[in-house]
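Key result, reporting period 2: structure in, sequence out.
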């Protein structure tokens, strides 16, 4: 479990805290989504989870290891994989496969084992054809996939993904989230997903909403959906109508035109269902 006990953090030369008074438990094998406006403190929180930043007050422990103890940091970073939103900041090698092998090499694994792990990780993100590519030639979305593969190859207990899908097309996004959810079940990985997409977040066990550095709500997806349009004031875009239509079709077994973009038309379509 990752346990945050009343933590606050202020960046150097910054006037106010970026996160304040956060207490939160992230249990094993949980899928937790973190949402909130720009600047609400989500990325800062992510960096506090793997000891990249240390809290000014309070304490973060990962499986009982406090990030305030310098001796624990290597182990904490091994357990908690963190993906930054900007893929360029994380890709440093000449070839995709070298990039992904970097972490396992540092662990001192033997070359055969590394090869196997790298191939598996590339396959997981459907990037096996790009093993010999230089990362700088990849598209933004492909870089994000390589970034995710370089975390998966380390087999972390916790994956903290800071807007990992921002550059992915809808198909890839869906595929990757499905893959991450499957991995969570098979490998007991705990998933923390920072996202602006409610469609992704509603698949989580719990949704944490941040505002001005504070956690203002921890709720089940159902409760968040019930907030409807009030979500907009928290920087969360309510679900797109199209996904609602799809769900209706799936669950009610009805068929509705997919080009409906206005609520009035949808209501009309539902009223005319036979
Ligand atoms: N390196 C930094 N130095 C100083 N202040 C920072 C730094 N990074 C972030 N901040 C400030 O900390 C606050 C929280 O920023 P953070 O990046 O955690 O927000 P966020 O919720 O991730 O936003 P976004 O949705 O835009 O990614 C903001 O007020 C921001 O200006
Ligand atoms: Mg951020």
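The corresponding designed sequence is given below.
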């Amino acid at each position: 479990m990752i346990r945050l006990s009343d933590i606050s953090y202020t960046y150097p030369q910054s006037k106010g805290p970026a996160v304040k008074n956060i207490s939160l438990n992230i249990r094993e094998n949980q899928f937790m989504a973190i949402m909130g406006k720009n600047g609400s403190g989500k990325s800062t929180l992510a960096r506090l989870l793997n000891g990249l930043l240390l809290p000014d007050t309070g304490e973060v422990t990962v499986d009982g290891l406090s990030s305030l103890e310098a001796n624990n940091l290597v182990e904490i970073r091994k357990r908690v994989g963190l993906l930054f939103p900007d893929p360029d900041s994380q890709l440093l090698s000449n070839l995709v496969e070298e990039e992904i092998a970097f972490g396992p090499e540092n662990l001192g694994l033997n070359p055969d084992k590394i090869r196997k792990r790298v191939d598996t990780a590339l396959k997981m993100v459907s990037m096996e054809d790009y093993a010999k590519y230089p990362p700088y030639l990849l598209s933004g979305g492909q870089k994000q996939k390589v970034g995710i593969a370089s975390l998966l190859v380390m087999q972390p207990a916790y994956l903290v993904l800071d807007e990992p899908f921002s550059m992915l097309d809808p198909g890839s996004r869906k595929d990757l989230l499905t893959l991450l959810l499957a991995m969570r079940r098979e490998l007991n990985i705990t998933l923390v997903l920072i996202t602006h997409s409610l469609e992704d977040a509603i698949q989580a066990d719990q949704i944490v909403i941040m505002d001005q550095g504070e956690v203002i709500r921890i709720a089940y997806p159902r409760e968040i959906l019930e907030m409807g349009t009030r979500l907009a004031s928290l920087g969360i875009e309510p679900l797109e109508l199209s996904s609602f239509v799809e769900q209706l079709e799936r669950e009610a077994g009805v068929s509705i035109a997919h080009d409906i973009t206005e609520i009035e038309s949808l209501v009309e379509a539902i009223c005319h269902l036979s």
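The chain has a mean pLDDT of 89. The chain is about 40% helix and 20% strand. This case is discussed further under Risks and Mitigation.
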